[in-house]
Amino acid sequence: NSLARLLSLSLGMAVALLVFSYVGLNLSFNNSFPNKERVFQVWAKSPQIGGMAHKLVKPLAPNLVADIPQVEAAVHFEEVQKIFGTTDNLMEATALQTNSSFFDVLDFGVISGDPHRILSSEGAAGGEVMISERLAKKMFGDDDPLGKKLGNEIVAGVFQTPAVNQSIGDFDILEHLPYDSDDEIWTGQDSYTTFIKLCEGADIAQVEAVMPEFVRNHGIEDYCKEWQMTYHFVPLTSTIYVESDVRAMQMIYSAIALIALVVACMNYVLLTISSLSERSRTIATMKCNGASRAVIFRMLMAETFLILLVSVAVAAVVLTSMHSQIFDLFGYKFSDIFALERIWIPLLVCLLAFAVAGIVPAMIFSVVSVDYAFRRGGDNRSWWKKSLLFLQITMAVAVVIFLMVSNRQVSYLANADYGYKFDRLVALELSTKVCDAGPIADKLRTLPFVENVGLSSQSPLSGYSGMPCVDDKGNLLFSCRWDIVDHNYIPSMQMDIVLGRNFLPTDGANRVIVNEKYVEKRGWSDSPIGKTIYDSSIVPFEIVGVVADYRMMSTGEVLPIVLHTVPYISDIAPDYKFVVLYNILLTGIDEDNMKALDKAVSSIYDDYYKYKIITYQEWIDLTFADIRQMRDGMFIVAFVVLVISLIGLCGYLLGEMARRRKEIAVRKVCGATIGEVLAVLGTRFLWIVLPATVCGVAVAVWSNDTYLSTLAQMRCTVPWWLYLLGALLVVTIVYAVQMFIALRAAMANPVDTIKKNN
Question: Residue 472 to residues 375, 403, 538, 722: CA-CA distances in angstroms?
Answer without folding.
Answer: 97, 53, 6, 53
